[in-house]
Amino acid sequence: MTAADMPALSHPDEDDRPVRPALLRGWRRRCPNCGAGPMLRGYLTVRDTCPVCGEALHHHRADDGPAYLTILIVGHLLAPILLFVFTKWRPEPLLLAVIFSVGTVALSLYLLPRLKGVLVALQWAKRMHGFGSAPDRGTDV
Description:
By secondary structure, the protein is mostly helical. It is built from four helices and two strands, in the order ααββαα. The two termini are 38 Å apart.
């Protein structure tokens, strides 16, 4: 098999779902297909279908991924800032704890639904977990 044969083996529908626009739409909590319909109903519940284009979104398997990424990002952003503030100004421990607790909660609440949208959009763009063109097969028994 030569390198010239490789493009012929690719799936014809792979190019119709670019990843970057899907991720940006997911960050905005919009449908990864059309970008117009809301992906989430409420704070974290993903809609079964897009109300605008009808794209099925119930296939997602975000599970604990958004929470893990939120903890990872918030920890990596606020830990160095906490260390810098403590070593530079030496504020009272109670004041430091209150300020950084509020910051941690606020940043976590901001990031969690956006990261869930990004993960669902990534699964949609990569045709993972039933987002592909093949019909649902049901569960194996």
